[in-house]
Amino acid sequence: xxxxxxxxxxxxxxxxxxxxxxxxxxxxxxxxxEPPRPDGPDLISQLPDSILHSILSLLPxxxxxxTGVLSSRWSPLWKAAPxxxxxxxxxxxxxxxxxxxxxxxxxRIFDSHRGPIESLSxxxxxxxxxxxxxxxxxxxxxRRLNLVASYNKAAYDYELPAFLLxxxxxxxxxxxxxxxxxxxxxxxxxxxxxxxxxxxxxPTDLLSKCGSLQTLYLTSSRGESETPIDISSQSLRKxxxxxxxxxxxxxIIRDAPNLESLMIGQETTMLCKLTILNAPKLQLLGxxxxxxxxxxxxxxxxxxxxxxxxxxxxxxxxxxxxxxMSMLSSVKTLAIEVExxxxxxxxxxxxxxxxxxxxxxxxxxxxxxxCFLTKGMWEEQGSLCFLDHLKTVTVKGFSGDQCDVELxxxxxxxxxxxxxxxLLCSKHISKKFVETKKRQFCIEMRASSDLVLVxxxxxxxxxxxxxxxxxxx
Length: 473
Known about the structure:
Layout: H1 4-7, H2 10-16, H3 49-57, H4 61-66, H5 77-80, E1 83-86, H6 100-112, E2 117-123, H7 127-139, E3 144-148, E4 150-151, E5 154-155, E6 158-159, H8 162-165, E7 172-176, E8 178-179, E9 194-198, H9 206-209, E10 215-220, E11 229-232, E12 238-243, E13 249-255, E14 261-264, E15 272-276, E16 284-289, E17 294-297, E18 300-305, E19 315-319, E20 333-338, H10 346-350, E21 358-363, E22 392-398, H11 402-414, E23 420-425, H12 431-440, E24 452-457, H13 466-472
Parallel strand pairs: 1-2, 2-3, 3-7, 6-8, 7-9, 9-10, 10-12, 11-13, 12-14, 13-15, 14-16, 15-17, 16-20, 20-21, 21-22, 22-23, 23-24
Antiparallel strand pairs: 4-5, 17-18, 18-19
């Protein structure tokens, strides 16, 4: 029996076997709603010019200039706003001498802008270009100025002009690779508060002529450390000194009646001979290295003497006036460096700070050789005066060797108001390690019932204290 499909004609069979077309979806455009437009007037443009000037002064210079295309209301605003300009932001590589187009950009900004200049940073311009920009900045009340005349191998010999030394509006000045005139006026920088000198020779009479200077940062290199740095200033309150020189450096605080903070770079203090003659208000001092060549505090001199034998370490001599040791009674915070066997000088050092409250110790791990340590050395000192005031102790590089145990057990037993001892360990800290050290420190015999021991794993390999590192660098 033939099927029904077979009985159909070939034409009808072809029509019926044709596949049914599949409908193709058609994308229907969706109307995107427009963002709502603010109802009412432009309130920002209605602000007074003084407020808009303050806002524009906080923007990057490129963004501040672009606001001039918004409307006729905004067109003249940036030209009168306080200007903050750093030419390194225009250079693809600020370590190299600025190209011509950078000089043109700075020139056009100076030519268009007519308002006051808040801050200006110029890097590696020629002396004539420097003079041109600096003179314009002085005329428009510059407050912060940064001049870089040398970087690596690139350098220009730029001598500071006289009109800059007499600028009344300047409060902060940073110089790198510049020079001062040989003959200074009786009074310079009348309102300067902060001065930063990097690779700049400090004239002997500079500080005495800056009657308002409060903060001084000194960074010197090899050629600048040959002569002693003599500090005499009636207004100076903070001094930071850092030297990259491999030669011995001498820093003398001759007369600084208002100096409150003296910070010396950790790499600097090793080769620095520090002499403090008159600083009655000094409260923060560091770093002091027990291995430094010489340290003089008033009439007390702690001096290192090299021994001819290479087996034994150098010895130290402490000389003082017959009546008493000179003391810096105002110092509350002290940071010192310790290198193993040189701990013998620490008692003499700490005697000079009878009212010490915070002691930070930077210890080199692995440099303590037990054969040079006199057992019971600390107990022989008795109760030193500073133990009546000491509140916190921080030890970075704590390893738990005999040197650490001798020192910390002494502080625990005799520290009458000691509240916290922070130990930064580079090794793994286990519960057994902590309990062992507490027992070795004689924690049960502590003089202060409020004393707390805090152990931290110091994962950073840097040999700096973060606190002191931030303040110095």
